[in-house]
Amino acid sequence: MTSSNIPENGPENGADSGRILETLRLVKDESGASNVLSFASLEGVAVHDGHAHISLSTSRADVEKLEPLRPRAEAAIAQLPGIDKATIILTAHRAPGQPPIGGGHRPFRLDAPANNPGTPEARPGGKLLPQVRAIIAVASGKGGVGKSTTAVNVAAGLARLGLRTGMLDADIYGPSLPRMLGQHAKPFVENGKLIPIEAWGMHAMSIGFLVDERQAMIWRGPMVMGAIGQFLGDVAWPDLDVLVIDMPPGTGDAQLTIAQKLSLRGAIIVSTPQDIALLDARRGLAMFEKMHVPVLGIVENMSYFCCPNCDHRTELFGHGGARQEAEAAGVPFLGEIPLLANIRASGDAGAPVILSEPESEAARAYTAVARAVADSLRLGPAA
């Protein structure tokens, strides 16, 4: 087992990775011959307010060997200075000990020419990504409704259900996926293709992996369309059960480009309960209808707030508007997501709340949405 290719989720978490790595080596099985790292490799670390979120990459065959060691490892990590609690998440997308795909190859540069633009493999009808069983879009008619947070947690929920999951951040002007996944590594190019970043059991790509997060993307429309086309045709997406696309807000060229280049299996509309947000959600519904993309359902985000001290429920933005809109449009209502501080904190910490706090109210809400999406797509776990 080697561990030289550990991703560092920011400079502060690089030191945490080293301490956690040494602790995992000390947690051994009953025979004393094997430790946690005999069956897994450290994939990611995010520490927020003393809570360490650790992702271990393993094989399905070794999951049973790791389960008895997981609580002991969490307890040991929680004893480290500066850490009060630890949560270990197991993913099974890469064989233990195998270095990240593309390691050692030259990094991709934004100013490098695209590789064979317009000539990727296509499914019947000229659509891209034939190796992906289902491609879904998460969209909103306007910004600020929590679309990206919903997309990340639903994607992580699908991966947690056993589906081989990818995530594409198509919001070129406001990429948030690197921060929300806690990943800042630069993608590599292998055989002329960008290699997706692996995080929390998913394969991910975003313009944010290629530019500094403080850099403003002052691009005209054709450049944005070119970047989206490159992410679709020049990324080495593996065989996936589902690819979740975090769409940019609104109903413009980017959405049309994605719908034209891909065979979308469906779209999820995210809205908050108030009337002004629902007006924009209707535009999103109308856009997908015109593009002949089925709407899998509507999610009501920030549906209600529960006081952490007294559990009093307050409907800050009204309540039930998205459900009524879904009924009026004749599409499924996928669920209500509460307005909770741990959703925001987990996103800032780079560990989706559905994984970092799987028993929380927020995680249960996202899990219900992920299950409804998987059921509607008739996707079972990967073989």
From TrEMBL:
<keyword id="KW-0067">ATP-binding</keyword>
<comment type="similarity">
    <text>In the C-terminal section; belongs to the Mrp/NBP35 ATP-binding proteins family.</text>
</comment>
<comment type="similarity">
    <text>In the N-terminal section; belongs to the MIP18 family.</text>
</comment>
<dbReference type="GO" id="GO:0016226">
    <property type="term" value="P:iron-sulfur cluster assembly"/>
</dbReference>
<dbReference type="InterPro" id="IPR033756">
    <property type="entry name" value="YlxH/NBP35"/>
</dbReference>
<dbReference type="GO" id="GO:0016887">
    <property type="term" value="F:ATP hydrolysis activity"/>
</dbReference>
<feature type="binding site">
    <location>
        <begin position="141"/>
        <end position="148"/>
    </location>
    <ligand>
        <name>ATP</name>
    </ligand>
</feature>
<dbReference type="GO" id="GO:0140663">
    <property type="term" value="F:ATP-dependent FeS chaperone activity"/>
</dbReference>
<keyword id="KW-0411">Iron-sulfur</keyword>
<dbReference type="GO" id="GO:0005524">
    <property type="term" value="F:ATP binding"/>
</dbReference>
<dbReference type="Pfam" id="PF10609">
    <property type="entry name" value="ParA"/>
</dbReference>
<keyword id="KW-0479">Metal-binding</keyword>
<feature type="domain" description="MIP18 family-like">
    <location>
        <begin position="19"/>
        <end position="87"/>
    </location>
</feature>
<dbReference type="InterPro" id="IPR019591">
    <property type="entry name" value="Mrp/NBP35_ATP-bd"/>
</dbReference>
<protein>
    <recommendedName>
        <fullName>Iron-sulfur cluster carrier protein</fullName>
    </recommendedName>
</protein>
<keyword id="KW-0378">Hydrolase</keyword>
<dbReference type="GO" id="GO:0046872">
    <property type="term" value="F:metal ion binding"/>
</dbReference>
<keyword id="KW-0408">Iron</keyword>
<dbReference type="GO" id="GO:0051539">
    <property type="term" value="F:4 iron, 4 sulfur cluster binding"/>
</dbReference>
<comment type="subunit">
    <text>Homodimer.</text>
</comment>
<dbReference type="Pfam" id="PF01883">
    <property type="entry name" value="FeS_assembly_P"/>
</dbReference>
<dbReference type="InterPro" id="IPR034904">
    <property type="entry name" value="FSCA_dom_sf"/>
</dbReference>
<keyword id="KW-0547">Nucleotide-binding</keyword>
<dbReference type="InterPro" id="IPR002744">
    <property type="entry name" value="MIP18-like"/>
</dbReference>
<dbReference type="InterPro" id="IPR044304">
    <property type="entry name" value="NUBPL-like"/>
</dbReference>
<dbReference type="InterPro" id="IPR000808">
    <property type="entry name" value="Mrp-like_CS"/>
</dbReference>
<dbReference type="InterPro" id="IPR027417">
    <property type="entry name" value="P-loop_NTPase"/>
</dbReference>
<comment type="function">
    <text>Binds and transfers iron-sulfur (Fe-S) clusters to target apoproteins. Can hydrolyze ATP.</text>
</comment>
